[in-house]
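Dear Dr. H.,

I hope your travels went smoothly. While you were away I took the liberty of generating a structure for the chain from your last submission, since the lab meeting agenda had it listed for discussion. I wanted you to have the full record in hand beforehand rather than looking at slides cold. The sequence, exactly as received, is reproduced here:
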Amino acid sequence: MSLKAVILAAGKGTRMRELTQQMPKPMLEVAGRPVLEHILVGLRDAGVVEACVIVGYRGDAIRGYFGDGSRLGMHLIYVEQMVQNGTGKAPELAKDFVGRDSFVLSYGDILVTPENYRHMSELFAETKPDALQTVKRGEDVTKGAVACFDQAFFMTDLIEKPKPEQIEALVRAGKLQPGAPAWYNAGIYIFTPRVFEFIARLQKSVRGEYELTDALIAMCKAGLRIRGFELTGQWADVRDPEVLAELRQTLGKS
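The corresponding predicted structure, in token form, is as follows:
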């Protein structure tokens, strides 16, 4: 089964402060290569060679560096997100590119050990869910989203930036077990085109944005099967200068 990829790389990355004044966050370098290049090469090595990159702020820098993708052995196209209104609606811009194919969806600032892409693809092909969601253990779920799963590792609930009382409610409901991992949404997915049905119905959140996690919650409530996948090895959300500096020290100076 061949997969395509959609990469969300439109944001400015304001938490990077002066580092993103001249370039978008996915173009910041780690170990001598832009973060986005690490992602694309990892996908290519897993057999994903067609990708749509959603660009916005300084999208010219991304287009100019990667071109049509042939240098990487890939075929890349670009779609511009004119309005920065959240992660929920951005994938819709790639709907025509996706067509009837399933696709990996990744944020353009998430770095993982590359072998994860292949293992994700294999599990998706084997279990044939409606979606696959990557998770990590040991992260502070209050800064992202906490995902709950049944014994077969299919999602039962997802809460964005849960407050302590929401965590307690999940424990009381038996959705989180004391001492068991609190699964952190790791920001990489595989979707079938069915996700677009739920993206089309999204409403703005209290933050005034369309949230991708709201589409996942709606899929779950509708009875669609969302399989969890625990990432192994390295995972990093390159969200601020401190994380970037740590990665550069760990993986080699850029």
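Two observations you may find useful: The domain at 4-251 is CATH 3.90.550.10 (Spore Coat Polysaccharide Biosynthesis Protein SpsA; Chain A). Residues 54 and 79 are 5 Å apart (CA to CA).

With kind regards,
E. W.
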